[in-house]
Design brief:
TIM Barrel; seven-stranded parallel β-sheet; 9 strands; two-stranded antiparallel ribbon; homodimer; alpha/beta
């Protein structure tokens, strides 16, 4: 019943409707900063939680119970698709790949066409989460954007300088193109399966999109996102595109067929919206590290972010990056309270 | 004799004078991609080269001899100032600090007031380099910008997520302010000593400036750079401010009292100059990784960068980040030839 949540603050903000208050959720809200999450994870490892719809759903709703966020986001991981493509990935806790993609031959060995099937527990978790959410809170399904997932597959995990992925783009563009095509197709299947299971919105995380010059951004970041977003249009749910370190690419981002642009913390919202234009909602963008500065500073910073939006319709409050595991609960509470109580002064 | 080089292409470009062609040099041009550099380094370790004016000068002029770049940059390191402040830093090859700055008490233990004295080999290297350059090529002196140097001192070396420095800014702002004040003062002494020794231009490297939201950028990045640049004004040489990942902060950067803004590769030059305004020259901004793509691609990309400047006076061609150690010599040659032969078509 995705339609029943069309009147929620979150979905209406995605559609840029004028609202009585600004909705809020935070990236990685189902995570280690929550004691109830750590308690559950003490009993079950990370992948088990991802792969067991009941456990994933339980974790998904934990932050809704505690803080009443205006949207839930499915507990999952952007790198599960790599496992479905046949790569051996462990999480301890950062991702470590047993092998790396280095050539076209490596790409051709990936198991395409089985992604949605191998990840069928994810739509299962969507259904289980929606049941727990009782039609009261919209649920965001998500995937990693193709370029960001590709960086992990080529680097073999996280990276400091991303030299391998960048070298691949410039020295083996046919391998890079094939990898991104494979990921684009897999993401379309995988994200589509979440929409079909009832996700109320879909989000693409492009954490590493900020590594590239305009030409490569266009080809390897924006091109794949464009294809995924177009394929999702038939589900008629809002699509959110989050990227990081891309203040210089906002003009290109404004041309993507999405409804909401997730902003990192490096630019104030008003300046970003000036570039993005009037047809996009925005989500963001408080620096997650500012949650460590104590409740008073959190309140001040939250108001600063709200004010920088200058009252334009279509703002979903969020952090500019995932919440840190050491964010104090009282600071998260101060954040939620501040956003919920805030009304534009103008 | 700094005045003798006022008519050089490089200095005239810094002053936004119309020129017959675009000058070029590349960041880290005195470095590992050069066989003559590797040969010298096989005999002397990194710090010995930095600390011995004759060796530093020899390395400084190596890329001028091979490629005839339009500016030389002193061979040195932005972290030498940390040693002068009393910290134990090794280079193997990345910097590793034996201890980290974690508190105001740690900052107060730094040996201030001896920076220029302890780094007196650096103006020595300026003088030795200028002798080898024979008044034919301008010499750039440089320092790390205070915030970037602070990140190394707080992280204890390079970093992937910069969690320590960001936490310090938000949880111990008095320690962060004291550290930045110490570095600002030291940088003024140190960079001033290079100007007094005859550096024809001064450059500040702010590689990690792109980590921050606008409020922290203003306080911890722009504030210190502003102070250093103001103190250098009396030397009447062009000041270049390079930062990385700061496309969202260009408006603030345009207010700094510098003459040239060094751009990373994430935004085309024309768009950046639209934000920076007409009173600043720019330096950049080809992606260094594109030098791995072969001479034909290098020529195409170099022309793309030149054309994106749209013929505005005040463009110094450079890479958007340091040249990679595995950049092929023939590709560097293709780059230099392309820039040197290029004339605007309009």
């Amino acid at each position: 019943m995705p339609t029943s949540l069309e009147t929620s603050l979150f979905i209406r903000a995605c559609r840029r409707q004028p609202l009585e208050r600004t909705p809020i959720w935070v990236m990685r809200q189902a995570g280690r900063y929550l004691p109830e999450y750590r308690e559950l994870r003490a009993k079950h490892d990370f992948l088990t939680v991802c792969r067991t719809p009941e456990l994933a759903a339980e974790v998904t709703v934990q932050p809704i119970r505690r803080y009443g966020f205006d949207a839930a986001i499915l507990f999952s991981d952007i790198l599960l698709i790599c496992q479905a493509l046949g790569m051996d990935v462990e999480f301890n806790p950062g991702p470590v790949f047993k092998s790396r993609i280095e050539s076209l031959a490596d790409v051709s060995k990936l198991h395409t066409g089985e992604v949605a099937e191998k990840l069928s527990f994810v739509p299962g978790a969507v259904r289980a989460s929606r049941e727990l959410l009782k039609g009261e809170t919209p649920l965001i399904g998500f995937a990693g954007a193709p370029f960001t997932v590709a960086t992990y597959m080529v680097e073999g995990g996280g990276s400091r300088n991303f030299e391998r992925i960048k070298s691949l783009l410039f020295t083996a563009p046919e391998a890079a193109n094939a990898l991104l095509d494979t990921l684009t197709q897999g993401t379309i299947e995988y994200l589509g399966s979440q929409a079909e299971a009832g996700a109320d919105a879909l989000m693409l995380f492009d954490t590493h999109a900020g590594l590239l010059a305009p030409e490569e951004f266009d080809r390897y970041v924006a091109g794949p996102v464009d294809k995924v977003a177009r394929a999702m249009a038939r589900y008629n749910v809002p699509i959110i595109y989050y990227s990081n370190g891309t203040a210089g690419a906002l003009k290109r981002i404004s041309q993507l067929p999405v409804q909401v642009v997730g902003l990192d913390f490096r630019m104030d919202i008003g300046s970003a919206r000036d570039i993005l234009g009037p047809n996009l909602a925005v989500q963001g963008n408080m620096d997650p590290v500012s949650l460590l500065a104590g409740p008073d500073q959190v309140r001040r910073r939250a108001r600063q972010v709200l004010e920088s939006n200058a009252g334009r319709p279509g703002h979903i409050f969020n952090l500019g990056h995932g919440i840190l595991p050491n964010a104090p609960l009282e600071c998260v509470q101060a954040l939620v309270d501040t956003v919920r109580e805030w009304r534009p002064t103008a």
